[in-house]
Amino acid sequence: MVKICCIGAGYVGGPTMAVIALKCPSIEVAVVDISVARITAWNSDQLPIYEPGLDEVVKQCRGKNLFFSTNVEKHVSEADIIFVSVNTPTKTRGLGAGKAADLTYWESAARMIADVSKSDKIVVEKSTVPVKTAEAIEKILTHNSKGINYQILSNPEFLAEGTAIEDLFSPDRVLIGGRETPDGQRAIKALKDVYAHWVPEDRIICTNLWSAELSKLAANAFLAQRISSVNAMSALCEATGADVSQVSHAIGKDTRIGPKFLNSSVGFGGSCFQKDILNLVYICECNSLTEVANYWKQVIKVNDYQKSRFVNRVVSSMFNTVSGKKIAILGFAFKKDTGDTRETPAIDVCNGLLGDKAWLSIYDPQVTEDQIQRDLAMKKFDWDHPVHLQPMSPTSVKQVTVVWDAYEATKNAHGLCILTEWDEFKSLDFQRIFDNMQKPAFVFDGRNVVNADKLREIGFIVYSIGKPLDPWLKDMPAMA
Ligand code: UDX
Ligand code: UDX
Ligand code: ADP
C-alpha cells in the first residue's frame, strides 16, 4: 500500500489530501501539522476551514485511509510520498523584505524529513514557492541523506477557495514538474499514478521542475492582472458613464479573452495573488529584469488604488467626513463561501475608514470576531505564520464591533459597505434596513451584488463599482 504524508494541514493540504484519500482507497493518507489546535479541529465535527462539500469528503474517509495527526515524524518516516504544504510568508525583514518569500517553515520541514527518513522518498512541493526552491530543498536533503534517495517534484495546487472540492474533483489540469533523469521520471510517474485514479491522463501535464514552479506564479499573476485590468476599467467607467458589467460582458464574448474572472470589485485578496506577484517581482529584480518587474508591480498598485478609491468614495459622498459615523461592513472574507480573511480587501477598507474615525459594525457569515479584531490589529505581511505563533490576545480595536446579523450591523448606520459577494446579501430586506438607518442612507456596493435601481426606489443613495454614478455622487467627486 502506498503511503502519503502531507506536512501542513491548511487550506491547501487539508482539502487536497481529503480528495486524494476519497479517490484512492488503496492509498493511506496522513495529514500532519505542528498546530495541535488545527489537528484537533480536523479530527472533530467542526473542521478548521469552511469549504462547501469538504465535510462530506472528510467524513467518508477519516479513520479509514485518511488520518490527521501531530505525530509529524512518525508519518513522515513511514511515507513513500511526502507533500509539503506549509506557510511561505513574505519576508518582513532582512534581504528581500516585503517581496521575497520567507522559506523558514519550508526549510525546517526539509531538515526534519532528512532527520527522520529511513527509506527513499518522493518529496512534493505543494505550497507556492519561488522558482528554484526545489533546488534548495534538494541540496538540504541530499547533503543530509545518509544514503537515502530523495526525488523532488513540484506539483503546484490550482484550487480556489470556496470551490476547492469541485476544483479538486475535476481540475483543469494537474501539473507535475521533476528532474529529467530516469529517477526523476520514475518519481513523476509515481505521482501521476496517484492522480490518474480520477483525473484524465490528458489533463496531467509533466514538465521540468522550474517550469512547474514558475507556471504557478505565472497563473496567479495572469489571474490577478485580469482583475486589475477590469478594475482599472471600472474607474474609467465611473468617470465616463459606461457600465463595467456591460464592458466585461462585451469583451468576454471574444473567445481570445473569455468570459471568466472579469468581475470588477473592491480589489482582489486571498493568500496567493499579492504574495505570488511580489515573489515574481523579486525574482525579476534578482535577474536584473527591471522592466518586467515594474510591469507586474503595476498589478498590485492598481489593486491598492482600487481599495483606496473605494474608501475615498465613501468619505467624499458622506460630506467629506465619516468621523463618529456608524458604517456597517457587510462581508469581511476575501471572497464568498470561505471564512478566510488573508489579504482580504476588507482589511484595507476598514483601516481606511477607521483612519477617518468611523465606527464600524461588521458582519460576515463565516468570520469570527476574534479573527476580525486580530486582522485589524495586525501589521502588513504578519498574517502568514502558523496559528500558534500569532498573538493570542490581540488589542481589541474599540471603534469596531462585530455582530452576527446584517440587520444589527446596519441599525442606525449612516452607510453600509458590501465588501464580500455573499449570496445572502442579495436577498436582504433592504426596506427594513433603510427604515432603521440614518438619512440620507448610503449603500456602497464593492461587489456589484445588489440591484441599485431597486435600492434607489427605496430611497438609498447607491454607489456601485464601475457603474454610472448616482446624481448625488456626481456632485461629490471622489478625491482620488
Ligand atoms: C487563487 C487562484 O484562483 C487559484 O487557482 C490558486 O490556486 C490560488 O489563488 P483564491 O485566492 O482561492 O484562488 O480565489 P480566487 O477565486 O482566485 O479569487 C481571488 C480574489 O480575486 C478574491 O478576492 C476575489 O473576490 C477576487 N476576484 C476574483 C475578483 O475581484 N473578480 C473576479 O472576477 C474574480
Ligand atoms: C487586432 C485584434 O485582434 C482585432 O480584434 C481588432 O479588430 C484589430 O486589432 P490585428 O492587429 O489585425 O487585430 O491582429 P492580431 O492577430 O490581434 O495581432 C496583433 C499583433 O499581436 C500582431 O503583431 C501579432 O503578431 C501579435 N501577437 C498576437 C503576438 O505577438 N502573440 C499572440 O499570441 C497574438
Ligand atoms: P495554505 O493556504 O498554503 O494551505 P496554511 O497557512 O493554511 O497555508 O497552512 C499551512 C500549515 O502548515 C499551518 O497549519 C502550519 O501550522 C503548518 N506548518 C508550518 N510549518 C510546519 C512544520 N514545520 N511542520 C508541520 N506543519 C507546519
What does this structure look like?
Residues 328-452 form the UDP-glucose/GDP-mannose dehydrogenase C-terminal domain. The chain has helices spanning 13-23, 36-42, 54-61, 72-78, 104-116, 133-143, 164-169, 182-195, 209-240, 244-252, 273-286, 290-317, 345-355, 369-377, 406-410, 430-435, 452-458, 471-474; strands at residues 3-7, 28-32, 66-69, 81-84, 121-125, 150-154, 174-178, 204-208, 326-330, 359-363, 400-402, 415-418, 442-445, 461-464. The protein is an alpha/beta fold. It folds into 2 domains: 3-199, NAD(P)-binding Rossmann-like Domain (Rossmann fold), CATH 3.40.50; 221-474, Rossmann fold (3-Layer(aba) Sandwich), CATH 3.40.50.720. Residues 391-396 have low confidence and may be disordered. Residues 157-161, 220, 223, 227, 261-263, 265, 268-270, 272-273, 334-335 line the site of one uridine-5'-diphosphate-xylopyranose.
The CATH architecture assignment of the largest domain turns out to be: 3-Layer(aba) Sandwich
Low-confidence stretches: 391-396
Structural class: alpha/beta
Bound molecules: uridine-5'-diphosphate-xylopyranose, adenosine-5'-diphosphate
Largest sheet: 6 strands, parallel
CATH class of the largest domain, named Alpha Beta
Name given to the CATH homologous superfamily of the largest domain: NAD(P)-binding Rossmann-like Domain
EC number: 1.1.1.22
Domain UDP-glucose/GDP-mannose dehydrogenase C-terminal: 328-452
Keywords: NAD, Oxidoreductase
Active site: 272 (nucleophile)
